[in-house]
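Run log // design_07
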């Protein structure tokens, strides 16, 4: 199950980043923050879904705020 979650996260991140061509700078920062936060949440919780989603949410919010500047 862990391998499947890691593979799905990697594919999702690759697809998300490939779609960034028409995004604003702030939107790109939000997506990148969510991806990094999701990966960090998964790593810290051992692949727990709640930790991954929580990390993605927190990372997305941080990325969005960083993109304001």
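design_07 sequence
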């Amino acid at each position: 199950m862990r391998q499947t979650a890691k593979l799905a996260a990697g594919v999702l991140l690759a697809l998300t980043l490939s779609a960034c061509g028409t995004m604003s700078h702030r939107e790109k920062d939000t997506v990148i923050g969510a991806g990094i936060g999701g990966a960090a949440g998964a790593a810290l919780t051992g692949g727990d879904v709640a930790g991954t989603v929580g990390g993605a949410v927190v990372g997305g919010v941080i990325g969005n705020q960083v993109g304001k500047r």
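The mean pLDDT is 85.
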